[in-house]
Amino acid sequence: MTDFAGSVDAALFSKLTTTPGTAFYGTRIYNMQAPEGVPRPYIIFSQIAGGNDNLTPNDSNDLTYRVECVGATRSDAATGNGYIQQALGSIQYELTVTNYSNYALQRQESFSRVDNIGGTQYWRRGDNYRIRFDHT
What we know:
Layout: H1 4-18, E1 29-31, E2 42-52, E3 61-71, H2 74-88, E4 100-117, E5 120-135
Parallel strand pairs: 1-2
Antiparallel strand pairs: 2-3, 3-5, 4-5
């Protein structure tokens, strides 16, 4: 059995590391959590909802991913999120997952926040993306 969720994670990572703008972050793009001590800014992404929607016999999936930039300043986070929106926000872009057709990739809810951890501020800007696939 194929690890569909892992395949979507890999496709999203590939899109973020090869698209102009987000490719600037290179190896500072992480699934779920960045390692401790990584220099900012960096990008993190994770699935926050969804799965197989059980609506059709062709194994359709409706997923929501949170993709965000974490920066040392508000400006760093906003700039990084602008790059993310360029990489993922246009309907012309799609993710490549073997044996699946990505028929929708839509930017939805935006968020902005700051975390104070150990006296250090972590500025966060991002969006949730709805990603839908059909098995081919």
